[in-house]
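> run fold PiggyBac transposable element-derived protein domain-containing protein
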Amino acid sequence: MEGRNGAANFSLQEVDVLHFLEDSNSEFLEVQSGGGDSDANPVEGEGNENEVHLRDSWAKHVRIDNGDWKWKNVCNSPKNIIVSAVSGVSERIERQFERNPSEINVLEKFLTEEFWIHIARETNIHAELSLHDIKPGTETKWFPVTTDELKAHFALCVLMSQVKKPSLQDYWTKRKILETPVFRETMPFSRFRDINRYLHFASDTEIDKIDRLRKVKPIIKFLQEKYRNMYVPGQNIAISESIMKFREIQHNSSRRTCGLKIYKLCETSTGYCWNFKVYQGKATDVESEVDEVSKMWDSEITVLKLCEKLLKGGRTIYMDIWCSSPSLFKYLLDRDTHAIGTVWARRKFMPAIWKDIKLERGELTFASSNGILAVKWRHKKDVHMLSTKHERPDMEETHGQDGGVMLKPNCVVEYISVMGGVYAHDQQLGSFPVVRRYCQGYKKLYFYLLDMTMLNASIIHRALNPQKKRERYTSFRVNIAEEMLLKIKLPSYPTRGCLSQGNKPLRLQSMQWAHFPSKIPPTNKKAAPSRRCKVCSTRGVRKETCYECEQCKIALHVDDCFKIYHTSVLL
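> ok
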């Protein structure tokens, strides 16, 4: 591998190895020196520790034979794929928008009236069935919910994520210091609580009892179709897993991560989630006549299900360590799709000889097979990468968190810079979760999916409004809630009540500095004395008053002169 100054960056033995690489018949595992620090350059002459690894790898001349997988220590020959993917809002959807559409207009393309009608119907049916079995003394004043009430309920949930309070009841408090009037003005707490209680999304008589997501399955299918129809992802897409916090589910006790696992396919440049899949155990819903697919792992099948409609478009898929494997990369490459990702060292068909190679920090080794480049690089620990896009792992300079310069393989640099799509998506969702402490896990998932929908809507809104590309996501959410509350028509709630008229704590500040009017005290000659008003005298008007300022002892009319005297500097 050549550095910035050509072969001068390598020791003598390394230059010999590079010449040996040019021979197409040579088959050995190559170890290169990168460097974890800015001054970590190979040292020529005796005493260079890298020479030991180079001599060992040169002497082995290993070829790894694993059936169709023959890993050779030669440069990869990437497949030349024509890129035909164009990123942007779907043309059919874009024609339906007016020029510079508002936030609510974009969201209504995702959450259509059909969406709210379905939830209202299922909620009313579920409430009617539940009220038959209700215990005496726990009756509620339930009446059928409307679509506008569901929209108001959703808008209030969005505002709850912006205005954080310790409990749900605090949003309807009458205490002046804690009050948020919009909640009490929209609907009473009892109605909001009843909608939470009976919120439902699927008929209990028609759902599949075996399906773990049966209670929210219609919502998942509806949103998956909307995500795919609204937007076309560009050349670079990423697949990774996200965790929706949920204490009743724990996937791995050693990692202490509790929640529901969701796999997402996102565009790396915008973070738009084009497809997703909720993890519910081993894959049982995948049937394929292709023998190559039937032998894949569940993680590999999940990747194919997420991107099956994006293959053969010249795209590049970036994926994390859970998804990657040589067999999956070969399957994607055969369908004109590049792939880059980290990988487990013990994945099937990975170079088995690598487990015996110990690398120092900054060193790497690589091999290729079937159009795939496999790289093992030592940083703080061993990093294993697969790529169908790179010919060889050339080292590139990057800046670390401490400002120092580091050398990393080009495939690692590209992976880190591009993989941020999914991570940015999760960071936005983690900042403003529209999730309350519900007992039912399927309702948590419903609100999480609505969060994802709002984030996707904000991405499309910025794409259709170039002048708002820098608009904050927080402003988008608040505007959605405000516009939604303005457009709906709610029923008349008899128990809504009036806003608080309680004492205001700031009223006591006037004890320290305020001036108050008072009656002029009586004298021996007059029981109700009066004097000329100071303000009227300044204006040349002779008027008397029986009031004065308690602190200033100046006679003033209470109606206007008292305020003018204490606020005007022109007297």
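Residues 157 and 390 are 47 Å apart (CA to CA).
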